[in-house]
Each structure stands twice: as structure tokens, then as C-alpha cells.
């Protein structure tokens, strides 16, 4: 499972450079030898970020990356496993195997989790009613949305909304 989807994986040639730059960065922070130490730290961070950007630019998106982008862009629409398989140019079994390895769930399981994550944000930060939230997150019926939300989160959407708002007001 890739714990940080969307972040480029380090190549064998890039890892030693990043390791070295972080080591030097740590030494600079510990030493704080003169007034220019902050400038040197910024220089190393810029080098690290530049290398990561370069890795990301030349990386060929994997079928899982393509499906993740499709889900994140189209979650509010009706999506079938066939849609995701076509996006990845893989059959269902291969797609789900690769998805399971990378994300820890099937493609449709990830879609459901992502929709519920967006719904949680909408419950906390908007006054949208449950029917509108269900539609906005790709659920055809609010009853199915409520059933899935309660099953996966362990509490109803209304209780979640009330609790999350109390918690966010405390902070």
C-alpha cells in the first residue's frame, strides 16, 4: 500500500542525493553557526523540492494513478467498475489487484471511502441537507448514503455533523 498517493516514489539514483541533503540540513539546524544558516537550509530544501518535482514530471502515471485521478475528478457522478477498468486499460481483476497493493482496497472500495471522506467534510463545513450531500458525492439515493455512512463510520451522518461541529468549535 502506498501511504502517500500522488507523491513520486524515490528512484535509486535520487535517494542518495535527498538523503545527503537532509543530513546536511540536519547538521545546519544543529550547528546554526552563523547568520546565513537559514539561507543554506532554504537552498537545500529548494534542491530537494526541485528533485521531487523532476521525478514527478518524468514519471509515467501508473494505471492506479490514472484511476485515482479519475475518481478524484468524477466522484460525484455515477462510476462503475467498468469505467475504472477502461480508464486504467486493465481488466477488473488486474485493476483490483494493483489497487489493493497500492491503496489497501479495491477500486470501488476506494471510491466509496473517498465519497464518504468528501461527505464528512460537507457535513462539517456546510449546511447542505443529507439529500444534497448524497447527490454531490455520487450517491443516487440519500437512504443508501446514510446506510453506507453509518456502516463505515459507525455513526449516522447527522450525529457525525453535530459531533464534528462541536469539536471544530472547541479548537
Automatic annotation (TrEMBL):
Start and end residues of each HTH araC/xylS-type domain: 65-163
Family annotation (Gene3D superfamilies): Homeodomain-like
Keyword annotations of the record: DNA-binding, Transcription, Transcription regulation
Molecular function per GO: DNA-binding transcription factor activity; sequence-specific DNA binding
Keyword Transcription recorded: yes
InterPro entries tied to this protein: Homeodomain-like_sf, HTH_AraC, HTH_AraC-typ_CS
The name this protein goes by in its record: AraC family transcriptional regulator
Amino acid at each position: 500500500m502506498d501511504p502517500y498517493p500522488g507523491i513520486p516514489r524515490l528512484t535509486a539514483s535520487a535517494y542518495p542525493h535527498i538523503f545527503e541533503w537532509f543530513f546536511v540540513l540536519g547538521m545546519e539546524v544543529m550547528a546554526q553557526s552563523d547568520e546565513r544558516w537559514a539561507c543554506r537550509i532554504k537552498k537545500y530544501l529548494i534542491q530537494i523540492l526541485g528533485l521531487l518535482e523532476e521525478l514527478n514530471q518524468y514519471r509515467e502515471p501508473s494505471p492506479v494513478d490514472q484511476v485515482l485521478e479519475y475518481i478524484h475528478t468524477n466522484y460525484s457522478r455515477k462510476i462503475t467498475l467498468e469505467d475504472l477498468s477502461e480508464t486504467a486499460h486493465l481488466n477488473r481483476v488486474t485493476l483490483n489487484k494493483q489497487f489493493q497493493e497500492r491503496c489497501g482496497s479495491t477500486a470501488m472500495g476506494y471510491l466509496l471511502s473517498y465519497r464518504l471522506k468528501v461527505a464528512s467534510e460537507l457535513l462539517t463545513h456546510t449546511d447542505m441537507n443529507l439529500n444534497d450531500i448524497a447527490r454531490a458525492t455520487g450517491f443516487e439515493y440519500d437512504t443508501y448514503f446514510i446506510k453506507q455512512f453509518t456502516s463505515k463510520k459507525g455513526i449516522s451522518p447527522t450525529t457525525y455533523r453535530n459531533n464534528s461541529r462541536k469539536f471544530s468549535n472547541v479548537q
